[in-house]
Backbone:
């Protein structure tokens, strides 16, 4: 599709947004806007087979995510947004690459409440921070299964904490969805470009 290749090319070399220049950001916004105007799935929340699953972040303007890369002696690894629509949940997982045996993980669990055919309200509920080895991390799906079956990890595994739902609400609008690409816009003006795993 015209526009999709341009967007993928524009985000390919900017390390999810960490290494962007103002010109890069302008080009990416323009390519995303063009593609959003050609959205083949106008009601993405009704297209659960397309939307459900694990998505890898290709690009974002969210400083909350990009600032994870500023942890000393570490760098931001892959970031995943995993949608489990049957349970109205989203699992955000950021891998942190560090020295051997010290690679970490930041995960946030949120509930989703559809408010239109494109927009969901998001309420963050739980956060987990720890070493990948202590958490037994192998993949996003494996971690999600552990989160679903373990109400709270012990301190030996990581820091597992509740997030005040009333203070951590936002929304996400899905502005483009096809078989393997999703574009979203958040309540803080953030742009997200994700590819299905």
Residues:
């Amino acid at each position: 599709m015209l526009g999709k290749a341009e967007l993928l090319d524009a985000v390919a070399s900017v390390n999810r947004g960490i290494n962007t220049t103002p010109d890069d950001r302008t080009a990416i916004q323009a390519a995303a806007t063009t593609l959003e105007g050609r959205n083949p799935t106008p009601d993405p929340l009704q297209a659960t087979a397309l939307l459900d699953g694990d998505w890898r972040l290709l690009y974002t303007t969210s400083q909350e995510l990009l600032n994870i890369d500023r942890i000393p002696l570490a760098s931001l690894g892959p970031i995943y947004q995993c949608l489990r629509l049957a349970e109205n949940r989203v699992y955000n997982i950021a891998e942190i690459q560090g020295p051997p045996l010290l690679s970490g993980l930041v995960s946030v669990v949120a509930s989703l409440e559809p408010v239109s055919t494109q927009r969901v309200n998001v309420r963050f509920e739980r956060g987990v921070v720890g070493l990948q080895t202590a958490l037994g991390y192998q993949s996003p799906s494996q971690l999600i299964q552990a989160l679903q079956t373990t109400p709270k990890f012990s301190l030996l595994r990581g820091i597992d904490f509740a997030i005040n739902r009333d203070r951590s609400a936002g929304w996400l609008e899905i502005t483009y969805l096809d078989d393997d690409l999703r574009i979203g816009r958040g309540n803080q003006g953030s742009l997200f470009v994700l590819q299905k795993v």
The chain has one domain: 4-196.
